[in-house]
Write a structure and sequence with these properties.
The chain has 14 helices and eight strands. By secondary structure, it is α/β, with parallel strands linked by helices. The chain folds into three domains: 95 residues, Orthogonal Bundle (Multidrug-efflux Transporter Regulator, Chain: A, Domain 2), CATH 1.10.1660.10; 83 residues, Methionine synthase domain (Methyltransferase, Methionine Synthase (B12-binding Domains), Chain A, domain 1, Orthogonal Bundle); 127 residues, Cobalamin-binding domain (Rossmann fold, 3-Layer(aba) Sandwich). Helix 8 crosses helix 10 and helix 10 packs parallel to helix 11.
């Protein structure tokens, strides 16, 4: 059985198929008939395959294309396959294949390719199922930073290049909004940690930044008070005085005018208790407001919250 700390070293059969060009059906059949590739069990009961199988299976795929039968090559070692094929390098260097970072990047790109395909087909069942699977495998922070954000960037690029329609872009956004909304609310249930108010400035048209912020905030065991988008400054001040959050986190997109955002932040900082931290993030976030911290990276934001919680006296949590 695979230890939870080593899950990142294993792949689902779908990921293995995408990375090697060998169908999931063939992989299952070979395992049953030849005992290779061999699956490992996760504590959850799911079957996973070692990333170390990828270079060998890629050469097996080349051998099959060259006319070899599966019974001849499936059980061979990497060295035996190199000898059989008469080459030390197939498709890419072995050193590159052994690079965990390169392999992770390839896995991510392959998966996002699949998600874009689902978007083109408007297949929300498959898309949401994959979201749930990756969330369970990677965790909330990794899902947001390594998958959700690159996925959105890819959708934007596909639309700009006219590879997808505006309806596809809206479909992708709504699927992700619904999924993230569900996840952060589930994570936020019965939390008794540091209160953090998550919202946007008035006039903000985009909600994904704030929702992602709510996800990252909730997985630090903080209690999220979520006001959504387009919140008047006076309301932010009022809620802050009533519920006394330790931090106010604001998502500010590129759509917001810098001068307007600066005016709102100056007013917030002036009207809110100085002991309440104000943190901004997003592409439209000003970075020169006294008393307001600007954190553009969700990983840095997560680390900041973890350290903040550790420094807080327990009687103030």
């Amino acid at each position: 059985m695979v230890n939870n700390t080593k899950i990142k070293d294993f792949l689902s059969i779908g990921e293995l198929a995408s990375l090697t060009g060998i169908s999931s059906h063939s992989l299952r059949m070979w395992e049953k008939r030849y005992g290779s590739p061999s699956a490992h069990r996760l504590p959850s009961g799911h079957r996973r395959y070692s990333k170390e199988d990828v270079p060998r299976l890629r050469i097996i795929a080349k051998a099959l294309d060259s006319g070899y039968r599966a019974s001849r090559v499936v059980t061979e070692s990497l060295e035996q396959l190199h000898s059989l094929m008469g080459t030390k390098q197939i498709v890419e260097s072995t050193s590159s294949l052994k690079s965990s970072e390169n392999l992770e990047l390839l896995i991510k790109e392959e998966l996002i390719d699949v998600w874009v395909k689902y978007v083109r087909e408007c297949d929300d069942d498959k898309l949401l199922n994959d979201f749930h699977e990756e969330w369970g495998r990677r965790g909330g922070l990794s899902f947001i930073t390594n998958y959700a954000i690159p996925f959105l960037a890819r959708i934007g690029s596909e639309w700009e290049d006219s590879n997808i329609k505006i309806s596809n872009e809206h479909f992708a956004t709504e699927c992700l909004v619904g999924f993230i909304s569900e996840k952060w609310r589930q994570t936020n249930v019965r939390k008794k940690g540091v209160k953090i108010l998550v919202t946007t400035l008035p006039g903000e048209p985009y909600n994904l930044g704030a929702l992602m912020c709510a996800v990252v905030t909730s997985i630090t065991d903080s209690k999220v008070i979520y006001l959504g988008i387009d919140t008047p400054v006076e309301e932010i001040v009022s809620v802050s005085k009533t519920y006394k959050p330790k931090i106010i986190a604001l998502s500010i997109s590129h759509a917001m005018k810098t001068s307007f955002s600066e005016d709102c932040l100056f007013k917030l900082r002036n009207d809110i208790n100085k002991e309440t931290l104000i943190i901004t993030g997003g592409k439209g976030s000003p970075c020169n407001i006294p008393g307001v911290s600007n954190i553009l990276d969700f990983k840095k934001y997560y680390n900041f919250l973890v350290k903040f919680k550790a420094l807080m006296p327990k009687d103030l949590l």
